[in-house]
Specification:
It holds the Pfam family DivIC. With about 140 residues, the protein is an all-alpha fold. About 75% of the residues lie in helices and about 0% in strands.
Length: about 140
């Protein structure tokens, strides 16, 4: 009977030890699982913030590019308007150059050529426009 008693405490201890080991294993697994969950959460959060950061950077970059392109568009529109204005002036000049009287006036003004019996007097700052120039004809001497 003494042998039975001695065996019993060992078997009870052993069950107790097995239970404790199982509980320790469960606790360790639970701890490992929590650590794994926190690690996964940290990785996902990092990926999320990196993604959001890259999207915000891309958005800011595109907004900057859009602003630059709008400014370039405005500058090009101004240049187009200037070119159209210059084209109108050139067309007007072409029409004027088709007129023989206008060509004669320009030749007399710029090259100081005159018709027979005409004298040209150049008065500085007196005539500002082509229409204001006075070409007087003198009588033949």
């Amino acid at each position: 009977m003494s042998e039975k008693k001695s065996r019993r405490p060992n078997s009870i201890s052993r069950i107790h030890q097995d239970f404790v080991k199982q509980e320790e294993i469960k606790a360790k697994r639970l701890h490992n699982r929590k650590v794994s969950l926190y690690r996964n959460l940290a990785i996902m959060t990092t990926i999320f913030f990196l993604t959001v950061g890259s999207l915000l950077f891309t958005l800011a970059h595109q907004k900057n590019n859009l602003q630059e392109k709008k400014e370039a568009e405005i500058a090009l529109k101004r240049e187009l308007d200037n070119q159209k204005e210059q084209q109108k002036e050139l067309k007007t000049q072409i029409v004027k150059l088709d007129d023989d009287d206008y060509i004669a006036k320009i030749v007399r003004k710029d090259l100081f050529l005159s018709k027979k019996g005409e004298k040209i007097f150049n008065i500085p700052n007196a005539a500002k426009d082509d229409d204001e120039m006075d070409f007087s004809q003198s009588q033949k001497d």
